[in-house]
Amino acid sequence: MDQDTAKVLFREGAILLFLDVPEGTEFGIDYNSWRVGPQFRGVKMVPPGIHFIYYSACNKDGETSPRTGFFYNFKQREIVVRKWDSALEDIGESVVSPEDLQRYHDNTQEMDKFLGPYPYDNYKTWVSLSSYITDGLASRLSPEKGKIASVSEFISDKSTSQSRKENNEATGILNKSGTFTSEGPVSFQEAEDRLPDMKTTPGTSLRFSIIPKNKFPPGSSPSEITKHNIDSSYTLECILGTFCPENSNDILGEIQFSFICFLIGQVYDAFDQWKKLVHLLCSSEDALVKHTELYLNFITVLHFQVKEIPEDFFVDIVSQDNFLTSTLREFFTNIESGQADEILRKKGLKFRDHLTVKFKWDFTSVPDDDEPVVVSLVD
Predict the structure, then answer these.
(1) 129-170 per-position pLDDT tens digit
(2) Is 356 left (phi over 0), alpha (psi -120 to 50) or beta?
(3) What gap in Å lies between CA 198 and CA 192, rounded to an integer?
(4) How many CB atoms neighbour CB 98 within 10 A?
(5) How far is CA 62 from CA 3, 25, 40, 42, in A?
(6) Is the dihedral angle over the CA atoms 142, 242, 286, 293 positive or is it negative?
(7) Which of 97, 142, 256, 364 sits between 20 and 30 A of 376, alpha carbons compared?
(8) In order of start, what are the domains of the chain with their CATH numbers?
(9) pTM, two decimal places
(10) Which tens digits make up the pLDDT trace of 79-92?
(11) 3-class DSSP state for residue 262?
């Protein structure tokens, strides 16, 4: 970072104070993470805008717990304070008083040596991955409690000794005299029935857009049903209708949000949502004409995401069931054969050629599953 940029960020950038964090804890912001040292107090010179902060507690053996994170929209020269709760092994819920916050503002010079500078060298990469995530969208998609956990939190229905005894009797574990029965091995279904009813802890689930199960409008004819099952434009319009009317790019923000939650936040459900939204846009042929600008931006979003994915990611996850190549093949076919705008067509096919050169993916040949089946008629 050059001196002029450093001076501007020092003067205008935000500060994240991450206090009382145990040494060895994994801490990260955006595309960078570190192990917390003895003098760590936070990060300075944070560029204003949306950022993703995450952390993992660490035990004495150096093993880290599942990752937890949150999005935050930093304001210019803002000081954000988070304190570690050793009992929870997580960020505490206590709110910093206005007096303490003012004290932090008054002592920024003294705190400077305990704050690490924001890794500005990767800032452009972060912007390319988060450009459509607004503060409102991040709040809408994040769990009600604000924290994004890589492992879901569950609670079980309350039970009493009497209810457990009745359940055991019903499933044959105990007889009415209170002694165990031994009637041979327990079936899988019986064992499953004895498990407690686990539910996701309220307020901890990501609130992604719900993709309608019905792919066609009510009252559709058989031919229309067939069309809507091939072309997902109707479903896409339903999703776009849930966002602000003046900003159709919010769906791109959700694609970026889910991608970051998976790639950095390590949330597998987010990867599933990313796949669904990418496939929805790629399989909507009529929408290419109606939403040209959206699709121009969509290609840019995919370009930067594919650029940042580790190479083994495709082998282990994305190529599973050939998801990305088959989805993009459909997308490029729609662009080439449909009524897409010429600018969109050129950009889409240029993106296709780029992927072909970089990953050796073949988007032109027809996969075996799509080959026509030859049926022989026997007299």
Answers:
(1) 999 999 999 999 999 988 999 887 667 665 555 655 555 555
(2) alpha
(3) 12
(4) 8
(5) 37, 9, 18, 21
(6) negative
(7) 364
(8) 3-130 (2.60.34.20), 158-195 (no CATH), 222-362 (1.25.40.550)
(9) 0.84
(10) 999 999 988 888 88
(11) helix
